[in-house]
Each structure stands twice: as structure tokens, then as C-alpha cells.
Design a protein that fits this description.
Layout (H helix, E strand, L loop, with lengths): L1 E2 L16 E2 L9 H15 L8 H15 L4 H10 L3 H12 L10 H17 L8 E7 L5 H13 L8 E8 L2 H9 L1 E2 L1 H4 L4 H7 E4 L3 E4 L1 H6 E5 L5 H5 L4 E6 L8 H14 E9 L12 E6 L2 E6 L1
Parallel strand pairs: 3-4, 3-9, 4-8, 9-10
Antiparallel strand pairs: 1-2, 5-7, 6-7, 10-12, 11-12
The structure holds S-adenosylmethionine (SAM).
The site of S-adenosylmethionine has 25 residues, from loops.
Length: about 300
């Protein structure tokens, strides 16, 4: 047993937990506590842990519990809900529970559809009011690979044809740490494994330890910020997008939170805008507001 002066002990008398725990003690979560935890996580993020994800939740929370020197899932839940610094702790919680898998050029047919069909169509559509500007949102952008891929393909294939076109790309995520990584724009081999050689050569600078940094011209096109897709107030601030990519995040929500998020995405789009979701995701049973449009090897959802 290792005695720890805990991090939690610094945050006020009600939370003066000075537990003596083993660093590696494996905690068990009861069915009741699992229900309480998943309700809380759902309420604050829309993420819903299915019954078969109990083990995953346990192992994700256990790391944070060890760090804080707490000794049970119940105490950590109380800590997250009630300690005076709960907003800061929520940030840590989101870091612990989200899955941030992503890479450059993850869904190439979507980027092909964007440059070959969607952008030319939008820039010719009389219903698109501002023809000088294109606004694109990578919602749940994780560490930024999707947002930067969009900036790269537009720079390579659209901007030479439409000189003077302004491109604004926003990447958002609930996880503070990945948003910071996105701003840094430095990636390991894993992230760039699917990147075509031309793009690797033109849009990255080799850095130490086999990492690659996105060039400043591309970084300048993308702004990253924290945004919880399940937060109504924050979502209402997101407006006037021509295209939204919201890929591989709806899978973590349940039907109710999917519906709510997709309705916000619909409202955030310009009248003729497009939504892309992940390769294995569908809006079937979630929204009837969009028209499904087929492109080579992918589909998009058009607001009409
Ligand atoms: C698997 S990654 C997908 C990244 C990228 N869109 C892609 O397709 O490669 C899922 C991301 O969704 C984010 N996420 C989960 N719940 C969220 C929420 N309620 N609001 C915003 N982002 C969320 C996670 O932090 C994670 O970075």
C-alpha cells in the first residue's frame, strides 16, 4: 500500500479525501454505480455507454481515480458533480472517456465529393448568398486531421480555380487535450499513414522524432476550439456553414442525443449546405430533414 497526499485533498474541506490506496488497485463498479455514471456522462455530453462498455468505462475512470487518490467510482462521481472545481474536472473527465481515433484523408471519397461536386455546385447556386466565402466545420475534429485535410484539398484543387475565394474552416471537439494538439499541428506517422505523397511533400514540414508539422499556410486556414455538441447554447452559436463534417462521433450517442445533435447541425447549415457523417453511420431514423445525395463511393446529406 502506498500512502498518497492526494490531488483531491487540495480543493476544499468537503473533498478532503486523503485516502491511502494502492496505485494499481483494480476497482469494481457496481451495476447501480454504472447506471449513475452513464446517466451523468449522458447528461453532460450525450455520450451513452452501452451495457457492454462497462469495462471500458471502468478502466478509463480508474486512471483518473488513481491520479486523484480517490478509492471508489462513487467518490469520483461525487467529486465530479460537487467539488468547487468541477468544471475543470469535467475537462479531465472528457479527456478520459472520449475516443479520439482519427487520421489524415480518413474518408477520401468525401473529400473528392467536396472538391469535385459540392464546392462547384454551391458556388454556382443562386441560393448561396455569399459566393466569396466558404465556411466548413469539422465537428468533433479530434486532433485536427480532418480539418487540415479539408484545408489541404481545397488549397490544392479549389483555390487555384476560384481566386479570391475565402475559406474558413472551424474544428471543434469536447476534449481539451486533442484541441491543443490540433492547434499545434504536429503529427506522428500513424496520423499521416494515409496521406498521398504529393500532400506529404507540399503541406508538411518534417520535424524531430519522425513527426511532421502542417505548414503555416494551412494552419492559418483552420481555427480550433472547444465545443460540446450536446450543449444547446454553444451549438446555437454555430451558424452559416456551407458544409459540415461530423464523422465518427454519432456512434457514441444514443438515439435521443443523436437527434438533438443532428437538429443543431441542420440549423447550423446554410439553406443549401451539406452534412457528411462517418462511413459506418446513417441518419436513418434520426432525421428526415435532409435529402440524401449519392457521390462516387460516398453519400452526403443536403439541406433543402
Ligand atoms: C473517433 S473521433 C472522430 C474524429 C474525426 N471526426 C474523424 O472522423 O476522424 C470522435 C471525437 O468526438 C469527440 N466527441 C465525443 N463526444 C463529443 C461531444 N459531445 N461534443 C464534441 N465532441 C465530442 C471526441 O472527443 C473525439 O475526438
Amino acid at each position: 500500500m502506498i500512502s498518497q497526499q492526494t490531488a483531491a485533498s487540495n480543493v476544499g474541506s468537503k473533498f478532503n479525501f486523503n485516502f491511502s490506496i494502492s496505485d494499481n488497485k483494480k476497482l469494481q463498479m457496481s451495476a447501480k454505480t454504472f447506471d449513475e455514471w452513464r446517466k451523468y456522462i449522458y447528461d453532460v455530453s450525450g455520450i451513452y455507454f452501452q451495457d457492454n462498455k462497462k469495462y471500458l468505462l471502468e478502466s478509463r475512470l480508474q486512471k483518473r481515480i488513481n491520479y486523484l487518490g480517490l478509492d471508489s467510482f462513487e467518490k469520483y462521481l461525487e467529486y465530479v458533480k460537487f467539488n468547487p472545481q468541477r468544471e475543470a474536472e469535467k475537462k479531465q473527465l472528457f479527456e478520459a472517456i472520449t475516443i479520439n481515433e482519427t487520421y489524415f484523408f480518413r474518408n477520401q471519397p468525401q473529400f473528392d465529393a467536396l472538391v469535385q461536386h459540392i464546392v462547384p455546385e454551391l458556388l454556382n447556386d443562386p441560393r448561396k448568398l455569399n459566393k466569396k466565402k466558404l465556411r466548413i466545420w469539422s465537428a468533433a475534429s479530434s486532433s485536427g486531421e480532418e480539418a487540415y485535410t479539408i484545408a489541404m484539398v481545397l488549397t490544392e484543387l479549389i483555390l487555384p480555380k476560384y481566386p479570391g475565394l475565402q475559406v474558413e474552416i472551424i474544428g471543434t471537439d469536447i476534449n481539451y487535450a486533442v484541441v491543443e494538439n490540433a492547434k499545434r499541428g504536429i503529427y506522428k506517422e500513424y496520423s499521416i499513414r494515409n496521406t498521398p505523397p504529393l500532400y506529404l511533400k507540399k503541406y508538411f514540414i518534417p520535424r524531430e522524432n519522425n513527426t511532421m508539422e502542417v505548414i503555416p499556410e494551412i494552419k492559418k486556414m483552420v481555427k480550433f476550439k472547444i465545443l460540446n455538441l450536446y450543449d444547446d447554447a454553444g451549438m446555437r452559436m454555430m451558424n452559416n456553414f456551407d458544409v459540415i463534417f461530423c464523422a465518427n462521433v454519432l456512434i457514441y450517442f444514443n438515439l435521443e442525443s443523436k437527434k438533438k445533435v443532428v437538429e443543431h447541425l441542420y440549423n447550423a447549415l446554410n439553406p443549401v449546405g451539406y452534412l457528411f457523417i462517418g462511413y459506418s453511420e446513417s441518419l436513418h431514423g434520426i432525421s428526415k430533414a435532409f435529402r440524401l445525395v449519392s457521390f462516387p463511393k460516398t453519400i452526403g446529406y443536403k439541406k433543402e
